[in-house]
Each structure stands twice: as C-alpha cells, then as structure tokens.
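Schema walk-through. Below, the input block comes first and the output block second. Nothing else is stored per chain. Lengths vary across the set, and this one has 284 residues.
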Amino acid sequence: MDSKMTKVTGRKFEGERSLFMAKDLIIEDTIFGEGESPLKESRNIELQNTMFKWKYPLWYSKNIKVKNCSWFEMARAGVWYTEDISVEDCVIEAPKNFRRCKNLTLANVSLSDAKETLWNCEDVTLTDVTAKGTYFGMNTKNIKIDNLTLYGDYSFDGGRDIEVRNSKLLSKDAFWNCENVVVYDSFISGEYLGWNSKNLTFINCTIESLQGMCYIENLVMKNCKLLDTTLSFEYSTVDAEITGHIDSVKNPISGRIKADSIGKIIMEEDKVDVSKTMIIVSGE
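--- output ---
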C-alpha cells in the first residue's frame, strides 16, 4: 500500500456526501447505503469488495480504481463527470451510469440495466463487458471494444472513432449518425444498421438486418456474411465484398458490390445514377 494511502475497511456509510472530497483512500468491504453523492469530488481512491446502494456515488472524481464492487438498482447515475477511472470484475444493476467521463476502462463488467449508459464519454476501453439496455454508448468518442455482448437498441448513436472486435450486438439501429467506425470479427443483428453514418467498415462480420447499411457515406465491407438482409445499401456509397447471398440490394449511390448471389437488385434510374455502381455476382 502506498504510504500516502489510508485504508478504510468494513464500514457502512449513510447520509449525503458521507466522504465528500475524500483523498488517498483504499476502501474495502464497505457499504455505501442511503445517502446521495458519498464520494463526490474524491481523488485517488481504490475501492474493493464494496457496495453502492444509493444515487450518484462517484461524481466529479479523479484517479479512481474499482474492483469486485457492486452498484445496486438505486445507485443510478453512478459515475458522471469523472476522469481516469478503471472498473474491473464488477456487477452494475443501476441504469444511467458513466456520463461525460474521460479515460474510462471497463473490464469484466456486467451491466444488467444499461439504458442511457456510457453517454458523452471520451477515451473508453471496454473488455469482456455484457450490457443490456437501449441507447448504450450515445455520443461517445474514441472507444476500443473487445468482446462486448450487447442487448439493446439504438447503440452508439452519434459515436465517433469506434473500434469493435469479437463482439455480439443484438441492437436495432446500431451505429446511427456515427463517424469512423471499424468492426472486426463480430455478429450484429438488428434492423436499419448504420444509417446516416460516415466511414463505416465491417471486416469478417456476420450481419442480419432489414434495410441495413443505408444512407452511409463510405461504407466498406470485407469478407462479411449477410443473413436475411433485405433492401440493403440504399443511398450509400459502398465497397462491399460479401461471402454468400444477399437477399436484395436497393439503390446504392455508387461503388462496388460483390456477392456469390443476390436475390433481387432494385436500381431505379429516377432515384440514382445506375452507371456509378458496379454489382458483381460471382456465382453466375
């Protein structure tokens, strides 16, 4: 233990701002019960085997390490406006967590009610995270993700500079209004994938999506599978290499689409310049 750090063990704190502006603490086997903002404005805090049971536990904090801790349902809006925080081996039941945070790391974390979670954050790393909730990751920038399992629609709306690897997303309207997104070796199921985005790339992915990949500027797909994916690529600029079958393609603006087979190709000359798109069916 750092000589500057003071250890707090086996305590129960209640009441508003119980450890307001605390500094240089190692907090173990402790319960933060009823009482808002117990660690507001805290600095240099390590939390281990500790439970948060009430609202707003970590706001405006800096240099926080959390391990083997739990946020219960009423510990909502748990971490806002906080910088340099790592959360490892934790269970989070409360919604609306992680807002406007910078330099945030989550590793082996379960978020059972992740609605409106991870909003407007910067410099985020997610590893081995499971989350269930709508609007996960809205307007968050510079995210690196490995092994995320997500259940919830409208994920990453408005996000920027996102890298996703080895993940499973069951998410309608994922990656809307995004810019600079690369997804590797992942599975995505959800309608209207990627609309209104710019620089969206999928590599070695399997995707199932009604009207997926539409209204995208600079869509790239390499060695991807499209399962039951219909009316794809509408009004997108696209460079797509698809392994297997595409059910239907509709009115891409320009680029190249290559697949083993395509069920239906809809190119309406009054809507798009047909000459700007090359469609290659390699199985014919």
